[in-house]
């Protein structure tokens, strides 16, 4: 099989992976993704960001298709600006989990991503957004975080490292929620059993594709389930050691266009004008979760 046709689905994380540190897409990355499209392959953004925080980036990518958001809790149709599938985190379970973690490590600062295409990110006093460019609404007290259905809770500790906080959270949360670490200052609680692989599998199924022709790119431990699902996992040079340990290869950093480096090797040549080929499909066993027709 020629390298340029080895993969039909390219799944990329955003922060620390496809995006540079200033939240921009390089011309090189955009050109590489254009060559992917010209080859008839599909590109899926698979991110921890909720759908409303992904829309502007999808506009930059010219994306009108699907995106996996909220750590896999949302499958978003950019063209229709609607969620095709979403799972919310029970707010009482979230409060209980947060209380258990604070009993273990002391006071935390919390934020939530509300569910829906118009959902807001709410932050309680003391919480600092890990990405200052992303919009957030500050509430007066923690109880205000639970006013609407939520997709996840974001946690920060004044002293503990992200690794230590994530480990402590996993030790006490049990089946109340899934604990993930998705970036510097970003430890999160999401619905139990939901990961990036959950949303990626659903979106791929809708596209008629499966794991055997998928290459995935990421930089943090929350990308491990996606690597487990995909045929080939590529970690960035700036990736967390846990992800590098399970990756099939390591590329250059996000600042050095590591995604583009691999895509250029696989798909080569500049994009050319003309009609794109029909997307390839792959058959695989149905998943237990379903997506609306």
Automatic annotation (TrEMBL):
Cross-referenced CDD domains: HAD_Pase (cd07516)
Record-level Gene Ontology MF annotations: hydrolase activity
Top-level class of the enzyme under EC nomenclature: hydrolase
Keyword annotations from UniProtKB, A to Z: Hydrolase
Domain of life: Bacteria
Keyword Ligase: no
EC number(s) recorded for this UniProt protein: 3.1.3.-
PANTHER family: HAD SUPERFAMILY HYDROLASE-LIKE, TYPE 3 (PTHR10000:SF8), PHOSPHOSERINE PHOSPHATASE (PTHR10000)
Protein name, as recorded: HAD family hydrolase
Organism: Streptomyces fimbriatus
